[in-house]
Design goal:
- It is globular and about 65 Å long.
- The chain is of the alpha/beta class.
- The chain is 38% helix and 14% strand.
- It folds into 2 domains: 178 residues, Aspartate Aminotransferase, domain 1; 258 residues, Aspartate Aminotransferase, domain 2.
- It starts with a strand and ends with a helix.
- It has 14 helices and 16 strands.
- The strands form 4 sheets. It has a 7-stranded mixed sheet, sandwiched between helices. Strands 3-4-5-15 form a 4-stranded mixed sheet. Strands 13-14-16 form a 3-stranded antiparallel sheet, with helices on one face.
- It binds pyridoxal-5'-phosphate.
């Protein structure tokens, strides 16, 4: 129970009321969770539900909150922007978009030019359109177990069953299983789905079809934490060069969370285009598309048959820009401390969790990429979705997450969802989490 405008309301009342007005009862149906929950406040590493119960947050709203919720400097920058009467002008270049674009280009080596959107989905849509305009080809390669947004060109089932997708084929491709009704068959006909870490299948598809782009998350973080095998991303680079396709890194999850230079600065592979979102504005809405001038230049090509549209009433909104500028400046000026802290905390968390399971004799592994991680109940770090399907204990994962939530540790209650540590987490948060985890695992 809590009060809302003086009236006490319960979770049940709120959810009942939501169903009367919101199609599906929750905005963005990916947020529908069991057990149902209503958070009303968040600060630093903590979430608070309607009843005021505190949770240590490892969901981070699907991972944007790299610095923690309501970071004081990020919020102050937003408040300052409003106090200066910055507004959405909708005409001409604004100082804040120039400041932000410069920070982005200075942070990530492959960014010669950028454009700014409101979401990661918009940015991946623009990347695909640019790649098609640049190559004059329609087909694209996507990864099984990848997620790149909700629009028609990428909207395939992220976590299909083996019955749906079929057994592993390499080299080969998988059926395109739309994640939504309402997608024209023609759109699906241009998608080719291959397994992550399977460059042979990328080459197989490239030999058979003219490919506009390979759109790949450099680490698959929408099915937990599937890291690229040594040489895999470099091989994708070679294949894109050989077959004249555009290599697009979807760094919506990895960018800025892994490092200021993105995952590309860690793996040493340079994509033609990159897409960012989430951590770039620490929880405020933003997407970024950027890359080499020869492709980004299509946005203003003098030839109308090549000119590629980018537009959006709210693109580079001053509130989001202020948040992103403050976030990137903090990461630029204090990156060593921030990334050091994130790394130390997450290493301690994942090592502690590994110890707890190993003491109980439960096969479990917790691969991580910086401050992002996922526990799989199997004896090795999975290399692709088929590996997870074949070896991960989904039921145990579900029970584990639910038990953690019951004791105040918020992991998204769906198997194989990535966890995120923020720079606002403390050693005490990790201690508390490990203590709860030990108790939960003892009873699993
Ligand atoms: C890797 C990746 N790309 C793209 C998107 C889409 O971003 P948005 O939800 O901001 O549209 C997501 C969202 O989770 C994502 O994880």
């Amino acid at each position: 129970m809590t009060t809302n405008g003086g009236k006490a309301i319960s979770v049940e009342q709120l959810i009942g009321s939501a169903d009367s007005y919101i199609a599906g009862g929750v905005v963005s149906l990916n947020r529908k969770v069991d057990p149902a929950i209503t958070f009303v406040r968040a600060l630093g590493s903590k979430l608070y539900n309607l009843a005021g119960t505190e949770y240590v947050d490892y969901h981070a709203a699907f991972s944007p909150h790299l610095l923690g919720h309501n970071h004081p400097q990020v919020n102050a920058a937003v408040i300052d922007a409003m106090a200066r009467n910055e507004s959405l002008m909708g005409a001409g270049t604004t100082p804040w978009e120039v400041t932000l674009a410069k920070l982005l280009c200075e942070a990530v080596n492959s960014l010669q030019r950028v454009q700014i959107t409101n979401t990661g989905s918009e940015a991946t849509a623009h990347a695909i359109r640019l790649a098609r305009a640049y190559t004059g080809r329609d087909d694209i390669i996507l990864m099984l177990g990848g997620y790149n947004g909700w629009h028609n060109d990428v909207c395939r089932t992220v976590m299909p069953t083996v019955d749906q997708v079929g057994s592993r084929v390499s080299p080969g491709e998988y059926p395109v299983l739309p994640l939504s009704a309402g997608i024209p068959k023609d759109a699906l006909a241009h998608l080719h789905i291959v397994n992550f870490n399977d460059a042979a299948s990328v080459e197989y598809v490239m030999r058979a079809h003219p490919i506009a782009c390979v759109l790949v998350e450099p680490v698959l973080q929408n099915i937990g934490m599937v890291l690229p095998q040594p040489g895999y991303l470099a091989r994708l680079r070679e294949l894109c060069d050989q077959y004249e396709a555009v290599l697009v890194f979807d760094e919506v999850k990895t960018g800025f969370r892994t490092a200021l230079g993105g995952y590309q600065s860690v793996c040493g592979v340079t994509p033609d285009l990159s897409v960012f979102g989430k951590a770039v504005a620490n929880g405020y809405p933003m997407g970024v598309i950027g890359g080499c001038e020869r492709i980004m230049g299509l946005f203003h090509d003098a030839d109308p048959t090549r000119k590629t549209l980018i537009a959006g009433t709210y693109n580079a909104h001053p509130v989001s820009c202020a948040a992103a500028i403050a976030t990137l400046e903090l990461l630029r000026d204090h990156g060593e401390d921030i990334y050091g802290q994130l790394d130390g905390l997450t290493a301690r968390l994942t090592a502690g969790v590994t110890d707890i399971f190993s003491q109980r004799g439960i096969p479990a592994i917790t691969p991580r990429n910086g401050s992002a991680y996922c526990t799989y109940f199997c004896d090795h770090a999975p290399v692709d979705w088929h590996d997870i399907l074949a070896h991960h204990d989904f039921d145990l994962d579900r029970r584990y997450r639910r038990a953690l939530i019951e004791r105040g540790i918020y992991q998204f209650p769906l198997p194989c969802k990535q966890g995120s540590v923020s720079a606002a987490h403390s050693d005490e948060d990790i201690d508390r989490t490990l203590e709860v985890t030990a108790g939960v695992v003892a009873e699993l």
